[in-house]
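We both want to read discrete structure tokens more fluently, so let's practise on a single case. Would you supply a protein for us yourself, any chain you care to pick? Would you write everything just below, so we can both look at the same thing?
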Amino acid sequence: MIRSLERELGANLLVRRGKTMLRLSPEGEEAVAHARQVMLEISNISRISVEKNNADHGKMTIATTHTQASYGLVPAIRNFKVLYPNVTLHMRNGTPAQIAQWVSTGRVDIGINARPQQLPTNIVAIEAYRIDRCIIAPTGHPILKLRKPSIKDIARYPIIDYDHDAHTGALLRNLFINAGVEPNIAVTGTDATAVMAYVEAGIGIAILQKQIFEGLSNRRIRTVDASHLVPMSATMMLLRKNAYLHGFMYRFIELVAPQWPRAKVEKRL
């Protein structure tokens, strides 16, 4: 079947060694990209039919980071489930690069994370909400007595770093590099929950997103503002261009980011 398709197209779609197929050729990669786009358009047609018959039923897949899934998106998800109890919500965790790829290929409907360094050409990124950061430390720690700690102040103490793929971890490393300071990394945490656990255990201090502590009451951890050290960043929503989104997906987007009603999102797509 592949040979027949190659004869019809007049190009080799695979790189071969004897009878072994090694990989796609450049022409093959282009053909697969077009085929994926056709499949996504077929999916769009199917969604139109489903929404016309069951506007409040269906499923939505969101790819995001552990921090956003556990903290930033909880209020929006709670409100969404009240409005759409018959919509199944699937959550996937990944790195910013993975999330962008999943949205690009249609494996997920919406991506929510820090903007990756490179975006596929078929992705639209819209700002969802701003992120401020703070320094967290065990109650009574000397760093908490400073109103505006410097990078050198922070470097005097053991630090709980973030995983290398995490946006906050990259920001922290750049801060030390730009200040010409060598940090004392005690432990590298895999996510915000782990980082807080290590700080609470007295292993070190850390820089985390402020939103994590909104609504939390932890007597063993205290915070001090770090906005003078870390530039404000934003959580982005990633959407595939020309994708057909269910009405409840537009509603979810608006619950996360009220500044993006359906009409504005459709215009961007």
Observations:
- The two ends are 36 Å apart (CA to CA).
- The chain has ten helices and twelve strands.
- Residues 162 and 169 are 4 Å apart (CA to CA).
- Residues 1-52 form one domain.
